[in-house]
Amino acid sequence: MEALCDNNSYSIGVCGMGGVGKTTLVKEVHKKAKESNLFNDIVMTTVSFTPDIRRIQGEIADQLNLKLDEESSSARANRICLRIKSVEKILIILDDVWKDVELKVIGIPFHDDHKGCKILLTTRNDHVCNLMDCGRKIPLNFLSDKESLALIKKIACIIDDYPPLNDVVMKVIKECKGLPIAIVTVGKALARKPLNDWKVALKQLEESNLMDIEGVDDEKNVYVCLKWSYDRLKRKTKFCFLLCSLFPEDYDISIEELARYVMGLDEFGTITCLEEARNEARVIINNLKDSYLLLESNRETHVKTHDMVRDVALWIVSKGENEFMLRVCTR
């Protein structure tokens, strides 16, 4: 909200791992900005990995009470642009942006074209904020234990103060490591369930088997959410990501070690010297960090994986995504 009030910020990027709460946050910002009358109009649309320009244009036009009769996307863009320019202060919220979006193609004026138009976007890739020229970048961090407990109590409808249950609930949220979608997934599955169900779920979480918890939605859960990010990676980057899951939980993964493994497994193809392998490994690791699938370590030459992300990688491997990885993981 502070960034929205900053007249020097025309574009604001909210970035973070899949399931960390970006969409939830901007929906709340939409609500508060409307209540505060910060803008004359507020528009929100989902961009997604493969943007459907006509759908996006249609959603923007509907929210601006604009009827589009034109057939061509360029003519529709001109109409939308004129309508947006007629509004003194307008906020355009673009949710789920995966790459550089040409705003002019949609019909959104930017910077000097209309200084009263602000863009608020969400993305799973930090680099997208740079491509979209975001003046302010707001990374979303994981929830604290206190916040995680409050969220799971709300989702699972826990009211009574029952010490045995409270102890198990605390252990469950420790396994979720502050990732909101993981907490919501587990909370929904265990809503109003007895203590024994929580104990069984805790054991499954400890064994990285969230999908085995009774009541977990097969289509809407943290594993599916994070696999969506994984599916958008290039082949070598996928392999490197899966390789990281072989290291123990909370392990500081050496970039040097990773480069040697990937080169030894002949995943870099024509690369024949270790220095080239190091360079390519660094590029891949930076891409994974930009996508929030790898985290910074306390040591500059190392990286880490979030426990839930590591679980997802192991789950992907268990489905036969990579035969070499599957053989290693099942020994």
SSE topology:
Blueprint: H1 2-5, E1 11-15, H2 22-35, E2 41-48, H3 53-63, H4 73-85, E3 90-97, H5 103-106, E4 117-123, H6 126-131, E5 136-139, H7 145-155, H8 163-176, H9 180-189, H10 195-206, H11 222-231, H12 235-244, E6 253-254, H13 255-264, H14 274-290, E7 295-296, E8 302-304, H15 307-318, H16 323-329
Parallel strand pairs: 1-4, 1-5, 2-3, 3-4
Antiparallel strand pairs: 6-8, 7-8
First-to-last CA distance: 51 Å
Strand content: 5-15%
Count of the separate structural domains: 3
- As a whole number of angstroms, the C-alpha radius of gyration is 22 Å
Mean pLDDT: 89
Describe the structure in your own words:
The protein contains 16 helices and eight strands. It has 331 residues and is an alpha/beta fold. It folds into three domains: 138 residues, Rossmann fold, CATH 3.40.50; 76 residues, Helicase, Ruva Protein, domain 3; 101 residues, Winged helix-like DNA-binding domain superfamily/Winged helix DNA-binding domain (Arc Repressor Mutant, subunit A), CATH 1.10.10. A five-stranded parallel β-sheet has the order 2-3-4-1-5, sandwiched between helices. Helix 7 packs across helix 8, helix 8 packs parallel to helix 10 and helix 12 packs across helix 14. It is globular. The C terminus is likely disordered.
Which features does this protein show?
single chain, 331 residues, alpha/beta, Rossmann fold, Helicase, Ruva Protein, domain 3, Arc Repressor Mutant, subunit A, 3 domains, 5-stranded parallel sheet, 16 helices, 8 strands, 50% helix, 12% strand, globular, disordered C terminus
